[in-house]
Structures are given as structure tokens and as C-alpha cells.
Design brief:
With 242 residues, this protein is mainly α. It has two domains: 107 residues, no CATH class; 112 residues, Leucine-rich Repeat Variant. The chain is built from 15 helices and no strands. Helix 12 packs antiparallel against helix 13. The longest helix has 16 residues. It is globular, with a radius of gyration of 19 Å.
Length: 242
């Protein structure tokens, strides 16, 4: 298998400290070698700490695949107390995106995750909005927009980042413009920065320009930077996120 040999990408992906980890991930995602998916699937049983990442690679390669492989390995890794604490198990866990379950359409991630977007517990809402942003599903946008009005500033920040991720995956985000513009009036810099970064996307850029005149100095400076192409980064959800 060439690059999938013991010294290649499949072996390299098991080394989480490798400086070439992202390159190994991209090789596995993009490879057109015959049988590559079967080789990855066969390696999951003894993949150890690399198992979630390899599950994510498979989801990136084919979002329409049967999610059983990822769900099975998640539950094998989770003991009883973890399951009880999470309640809904994988769909209430950050592992939902590490295993790539957010990208597997047949796992119905939006249906499972959306109820937690309005949960009374802020931690649940935060995980939900982050996971929804990773689904690449237009149906995830309305609940994400709802969290742009969340009373917790860090959830608003995550919601603005989720809008950016949905846009990167091709979702039309025009309906988020007004809620994002309101976030520019927030008193937390983190909220303003992520909202400005989302509004700086081509589909919303004109709304960002229109907002500039009514802003306080700090927000105005952030918006000016965003209009010049200087925006807050997106913190990667997993090592292969681009």
C-alpha cells in the first residue's frame, strides 16, 4: 500500500506528537489506493489512542457510510460511569466530533444534538453548539443562530465559530447576519472577534460594513481588522481540521 505501510501515513497517524501528523491525516483522507478504507477499518481494533482520529478519517472520506463502526468503538472505549454522566452518551460528548460522528449523515447528528442547544446546563449548550457547527448540515444553522443570543458569552463565541465552520463546509449562512451583528455590541472581546470574523465572510461582509458606524472604539477596531482580513483564528476541533 505504499504510503500506508508501517513507515507511512497509517503508522504516522498513531504518533500524536509527530510534526507530520496533519500530512499523514490528509494522505489517508485523500488516498485513492484500492482497499484503503478496509485497511483503516481493520486497524481500528488495535489502534489505541489513534482510534478516534482514524474513525474521523473514515467519516471525512465518506460521510454517508454506516456509522456503526464509529459508535461501536466509542461505546467500547466508554465505561459505565462515563455513559451515565453523559446521559445521551456520544451525542453529549466532545468525542462526537473526534470520532467524526458529527459528519456521518446516517447517524442523524443534528436531530440528536439540537435538543441540548437549549439545555439549562451551559456545558451542554456549549458542546451542542460546537458539535452542530461541525455537521456541515444546513439544518444545524437555526439552533446555532439561537445560541448567538445565549446569556453566556463563551457560548456566543462558540456559536459564531460554529457559523464560520458551517460556512466553510458550504452552508448558506445569510440568515445569521443580524444575530452576528448584535454580537458586535457585546462587552466581551472574544464574542466580538468571532462575530466579526463570521461577518467578514463574503456572504455577510456588507452587513459588517454597515455595522461599523455604530460601534464603540474596541469593537470598531476589531471590525476594521476583520474588513482588512485580520480575523480571530478558529481553534481546531481535531488535528486534521483545515
Amino acid at each position: 500500500m505504499g504510503e500506508l505501510g508501517s513507515d507511512g501515513a497509517l503508522a504516522g497517524i498513531r504518533d500524536s506528537d509527530s510534526p507530520d501528523l496533519r500530512a499523514h491525516i490528509r494522505i489517508l483522507i485523500d488516498s485513492t489506493e484500492p482497499g484503503v478504507e478496509e485497511i483503516i477499518l481493520d486497524s481500528l481494533a488495535d489502534a489505541g489512542p489513534a482510534r478516534p482520529l482514524l474513525c474521523r478519517v473514515l467519516a471525512e472520506r465518506d460521510p454517508d457510510r454506516d456509522p456503526d463502526y464509529a459508535l461501536r468503538h466509542f461505546y467500547e472505549a466508554a465505561d459505565g460511569p462515563i455513559r451515565r454522566r453523559l446521559g445521551h452518551e456520544v451525542y453529549r460528548s466532545p468525542w462526537v466530533w473526534l470520532y467524526g460522528i458529527t459528519r456521518l449523515r446516517n447517524a442523524n447528528p443534528v436531530d440528536h444534538i439540537t435538543p441540548d442547544a437549549t439545555h439549562w446546563l451551559a456545558t451542554r449548550r456549549q458542546i451542542a453548539v460546537t458539535a452542530l457547527g461541525d455537521t456541515a448540515d444546513p439544518a444545524a444553522l437555526p439552533p446555532v443562530i439561537g445560541r448567538l443570543r445565549d446569556p453566556k458569552w463563551w457560548i456566543r463565541t462558540e456559536a459564531a465559530a460554529a457559523v464560520r465552520r458551517l460556512a466553510k463546509s458550504g452552508v448558506e449562512i445569510g440568515s445569521a447576519a443580524e444575530a452576528l451583528a448584535r454580537c458586535l455590541q457585546h462587552d466581551r472581546q472574544e464574542v466580538i472577534e468571532q462575530a466579526a470574523a463570521a461577518l467578514a465572510l463574503p456572504a455577510l461582509r456588507e452587513r459588517l460594513r454597515c455595522s461599523r458606524a455604530t460601534l464603540m472604539p474596541l469593537a470598531g477596531a476589531i471590525v476594521d481588522n476583520a474588513l482588512d482580513g485580520v480575523v480571530a483564528p478558529l481553534v481546531p476541533l481535531w488535528p486534521g481540521e483545515e
